[in-house]
Amino acid sequence: GAAAAAEAAAAGADPYASDPARHPALIPRSQRPFNGETPGSLLAANPITPNDIFYIRNHLPVPHVDEKSYKLKVEGEGTRTLDLSLEELKTRFRKHNVTATVQCSGNRRNEMSRIKQVKGLEWDQGAIGTAVWGGVRLRDVLLAAGLSEDDPLVRHIHFEGFDRDPASGEVYGASIPIRKALSYGGDVLLAYEMNGQPLSADHGAPLRVIVPGVTGARSVKWLRRIVASPAESGSHWQQRDYKSFSPCVDWDSVDWGAAPAIQEPPVTSAICEPAPGTTLSAADGEVTVRGYAWSGGGRGIVRVDVSADGGASWRPARLLPPPPGAPQEHGAYAGAWAWTLWEITLPLPQPQGPGGPLPATVDLAVKAVDSSYNSQPDSVAGIWNLRGVVNNAWHRVSLPLEP
Amino acid sequence: GAAAAAEAAAAGADPYASDPARHPALIPRSQRPFNGETPGSLLAANPITPNDIFYIRNHLPVPHVDEKSYKLKVEGEGTRTLDLSLEELKTRFRKHNVTATVQCSGNRRNEMSRIKQVKGLEWDQGAIGTAVWGGVRLRDVLLAAGLSEDDPLVRHIHFEGFDRDPASGEVYGASIPIRKALSYGGDVLLAYEMNGQPLSADHGAPLRVIVPGVTGARSVKWLRRIVASPAESGSHWQQRDYKSFSPCVDWDSVDWGAAPAIQEPPVTSAICEPAPGTTLSAADGEVTVRGYAWSGGGRGIVRVDVSADGGASWRPARLLPPPPGAPQEHGAYAGAWAWTLWEITLPLPQPQGPGGPLPATVDLAVKAVDSSYNSQPDSVAGIWNLRGVVNNAWHRVSLPLEP
Ligand SMILES: [Mo]
Ligand SMILES: [Mo]
Fold this sequence. Notes:
2 copies of one chain form a homodimer.
Chain A: H1 2-10, E1 27-31, E2 34-37, H2 40-44, E3 56-57, E4 71-76, E5 82-85, H3 86-92, E6 95-103, H4 109-115, E7 128-137, H5 138-144, E8 156-164, E9 171-177, H6 178-182, E10 189-194, E11 197-198, E12 208-210, E13 223-229, H7 236-239, E14 268-273, E15 280-281, E16 286-294, E17 301-307, E18 315-316, E19 318-319, E20 340-347, E21 361-370, E22 395-402
Parallel strand pairs in A: 4-13, 15-22
Antiparallel strand pairs in A: 1-2, 2-3, 4-5, 6-7, 7-10, 8-9, 8-13, 10-11, 10-12, 14-16, 16-20, 17-18, 17-21, 19-20, 21-22
The structure holds molybdenum atom (2 copies).
């Protein structure tokens, strides 16, 4: 566990030595800690992402938590302290399933780095996935701890993980506003299941938070402690990371207090198929494009537009049926926690006469609209930020075209 | 009133003859019905927009409703019918004040028309304003009518006005989702006051709806009837207007059922000063730029970036204190119904040596970020739609530069 890893680190041993094995299809973006993303073709093929290829975002070594002796502590302002075993959680509270997409704030960061270097993992578009999460409502647990919806002193709910920095000893932590934590319709879960299976070590066993419609960094894995508080979490990841700034702000001028911690991310979309590097053939006559679209805050996807000419003209894509457990109407105003997969078949440019000229590339682009009619910025430059987060510019893939 | 106007129309008389006088500062966009917008300089100068220069958006002739005989009817699925006089409303229910911005869905439509003609009033950036609205909570009135939050048959709340089309007889109407209507934090008001004054005829006397964080078309004026229903309002303005589509959709191909009615609008911002046509002088050394930023759904403004080089580089503007009654923290996650005014002083380009070359124009641009980190599209083309609604592209103002 965490203590063992810290001891190992102190002894000069590799604190990552006990990390679990990962599926070979995951594309690694770092090894220590392990971070790996799902290939686009596997995202687009599965409304629910299979567990073993779900992207992994670890900030620290994977803690191994003994499920039998596990206790969740709930404490802080306005609460009676609770210590709950996994068995108590499962038996004292009603089980709920929530179909929700989880996305890293840094998804699609590599497009920002291409403009100007940013600090962070070089994610392509695969740091996102959708699962049916099973567990108990955070709301129910907080109410059982005596928290009142009207307590003016409680503004934020903190989550602390068992994962710990081997060097500094800092524990992973994050917080969400009380309104989201206590909201009946907010659907925040303490999850022990992912697609009907117990959580794996990489995904937070035995218990993690799932904050639907909120950036992945708040869905704390290996949950050890919940704290009710007047203030936000003071953790590094809440205060000095996962925030976005004006493009003019650099590492010398950044004032971390000037921007709010990312909670709900903006509307986004990405092309998953064809994969970058695919050569298209004009003789095929057409190309089928597939991908995902998603927005924060439970705002459903209303429309996805796809372009084959770099954004000069657009066609609306066909939206696939929402995953099981998600609202079955597209563009729901609330509770649309899951992504929308989409596809469209577009004609390819044809030579003007035999051997006639053909564009060298087909420049695909996608943009989505959510239920509050937010859409995506055209280009990355205007939203570039030193940490490379919340990139939701039109997603562009240019593919070579052969006759 | 409405009946008189209809009779007048039938008799061939002008149904708009009894419309009230308007402040000469309002910029008219149509006369029958009257629609007029607030000049930018007056928006930027006032955190709360004065009543007499608040933009007016009328779909039909102004009905003149007798306050003494006025009755509001509340009826429909799951309710006991209520008929409430203005006096009963004021005495049976607690009074609340809500500071909220109201914006027409067509604000900034004229930028869309410049690309390709759209149908609608040619609004510049002034079809927006902010007031302190006084009245009773819609929630309280609905609960008094016996509506239950758990009634699965009630999904939408309809509002009908006293205003009526003189030709077709159709009454103005709109609806909002039940979740918003009944939400304690949703702050939907039945308002009889605007900035401490009784509503004027143009703004809906004696009673109107204010739906904070939602597009103006749902804040029905001259409120006659509230209906609880399983379905959305069937009105023209809910079903075949105030929706946005892909840029490829034209009046021959439009399928009104394919897009949801606009409720929460996307994040937007605009430059109000200097006014278009102002000539800048490089000798002044600098220019002060002022404007507003606002987002739907109660999402506060986190940041406003301003460019003096057409969007190549950006500086964050100073955000002015929120108007009275609005959350006093910028970038609030909820309840930020009011706009954020901003200002910034930027250096002007200087000639390289005496008589040296100078750019012909200073190309100002602004974009805002809301608390869900949504930002604005770079250009109008990607969000162009046949009805010219929800234009939230970067707002650009190019000003001639003299030495
Ligand atoms: Mo993340
Ligand atoms: Mo409107």
